[in-house]
Every structure is written in C-alpha cells, then in structure tokens.
Design a protein that fits this description.
The chain is mainly α. Helix content is 64%, strand content 3%. The protein folds into 2 domains: 47 residues, no CATH class; 219 residues, Fumarate Reductase Cytochrome B subunit. A two-stranded antiparallel ribbon has the order 1-2. A two-stranded antiparallel sheet has the order 3-4.
C-alpha cells in the first residue's frame, strides 16, 4: 500500500472516479522512452539502504552466539563449584600415590604441606581442619555432571553450526613459526589488538581453546570417572589404562591445576584487552571494541 501511495504521489493523482491521472512529468518520460529508468531511480530512492544502515547492520552482528554465551557461564559456575568442593575433598587426604591403591600406610608419590581434615592422615601438623567432606563430595558430583551435559551441548552446537571451524580451527598459514612468534611477541609486549584483530581469536588463542576443550576437559572428566568404584567395576579398562585409581586421582589433580592456570591467564588477558568490552560481549553478544567506554 505504501509503495502505491508513493507511486500516486510521485507521478500522478487519482480522480474521483478512481482513474489515475498522469501528470506532465510522467507523460514526458513515456514520450521520451525513459519510463523504465525513471521508475528504477524512484524505486532505488525509496528502497535502497544507505551506507549508514549497512554499517549499523554489520555492527549489530553478535560477537558470541547465545549458545556459546550460555554454555560459557554455566561452565564457569560449574568450574568454580568444582574448584571449591575439590579443595575440600583434597584437604581430607592431601597425599598422592601412583597405582591402584594408596593409604596412610603407603609411601606417597608426593604430599601437599597442608593440614588435613582427618586425624588419621599424618601431615606433621598438631591439629586438623573441620571435615567438610560430606557436602563437598555431593556438590562436586552434581557440578561435574552439569558441566558434562553443558559440554556435550556445546560440542554438538559447535559441530553442527560450524562454530569450531569458523572461530577455533586456525588457518594453515597461521600455524607457521613466524606467525606464532609474532603473536607471542605481541602478547609479551602487552600491546592491544587492532580493531580487526579484536573481532576474532588469534592463532595462539585458538590453539589454547582447542587444547582446553578437546584435551584438558575430556581428561579431567575421564580421570574423575575413573576414581568412581562403579565406573571401575563396569569399565575396568578405563581405569587400568591410566595406571589405577590412585594414578587417576594424581592425574586429575594436575589437570585441575592446569585448568586453574588457564582460568587465571584467561581472566588476566580479558582484563588487559578491555574487561568491560569483553564481559559485555560474552553477556549480551554485542561486538567487542578495542577502546573501553568512558
């Protein structure tokens, strides 16, 4: 309806009998054989988007999809819950072994110089900490399963949507030693990324995220399940290949340390790159910029 009103108002008028009366401009255009060109120009003036609208549409593109943002924050909460509960579980027996069995009568592979929450565990301290082993184990298991389900959702989404291919898998040209050295040098000099670089991950970030997603997270889940007596009974090979349940516990501890280090470095790099911009991008999906808002 709007297009016809523009048509009537631009090249003619409607009589009381509903007949279109063409004005002199339109008749002249027909006479000169330029009707098509005139209509085309008028349509372009009405419908063609301006350059500002194109830029606005491009700027409105989300930096992170809704699924990526949702799984990111659920995983963050789960990891914090696993970290707190894991420390409490660790305090109950801060000694590590290698093999299938290990107890206070067994020589440890190494031990942490902290007091325990159980008097039967020799630590060298003359006191014990409050035993929080009950709620911490319950929270640890619940958070672990929620993290596993969230990880599966992220994995399926990444494969079906092309998220891994587009945002995480580096290009072959970026895997050269020269390209890696350039990125590392820039990080060590604490130089801010350019406007173009701020819109995507560099090769070092991509390789790090791939290592965390496809190596560290599966390994921490595997070693965690291997400590379960039920899993050890149902799938003994999954425990044997790790060297035993105590070996799985030791590996689980070191993988957790690596994940904690990744979290600290990740938060530090986000702060250096612009904490408010990066947080807004991960919460709302709006594109991150190289300059912090004032």
């Amino acid at each position: 309806m709007t297009a016809w009103l523009l048509f009537y108002g631009g090249i003619g008028s409607v009589s009381g009998k509903g007949v279109i009366q063409l004005d002199s401009r339109f008749r002249r255009c027909v006479h000169e054989g330029v009707l098509i060109d005139t209509l085309s120009e008028m349509a372009d003036s009405v419908w063609a988007p301006t350059s500002g609208s194109v830029v606005a549409a491009a700027t409105a593109t989300s930096r992170h999809s809704a699924v990526v943002r949702l799984t990111h924050w659920i995983t963050t909460l789960c990891f914090l819950a696993l970290l707190v509960s894991g420390v409490e579980i660790l305090i109950s027996h801060p000694r590590f072994y290698w093999g299938e069995a290990g107890n206070v009568l067994t020589a440890p592979l190494f031990k942490l110089p902290i007091p325990a929450s159980r008097a039967t565990v020799p630590t060298g301290y003359g006191y014990v900490l409050p035993d929080q082993n009950g709620w911490s184990r319950y929270l640890h298991f619940q958070a672990a399963w929620l993290a596993v389900l969230t990880g599966l959702l992220y994995l399926v989404f990444g494969l079906l949507s092309g998220h891994f291919r587009q945002n995480l898998f580096p290009a072959r040209a970026d895997l050269s030693w020269r390209a890696l050295a350039t990125i590392i040098a820039r990080h060590l000099s604490f130089r801010s990324a350019s406007e173009a670089e701020a819109g995507s991950y560099n090769v070092l970030q991509r390789l790090t995220y791939l290592f965390v997603i496809f190596v560290l997270f599966p390994l921490v889940i595997w070693t965690g399940l291997a400590m379960s007596p039920a899993i050890a009974s149902a799938f003994p090979a999954a425990v044997t290949v790790l060297g035993g349940q105590q070996s799985a516990r030791t590996i689980h501890f070191f993988v957790s340390i690596f994940l904690l280090l990744f979290l600290l470095v990740h938060v530090g790099m986000v702060s250096l790159a612009g904490f408010r911009n990066r947080m807004r991008a991960m919460i709302t999906g709006s594109p991150a910029t190289t300059k912090e808002p004032r």
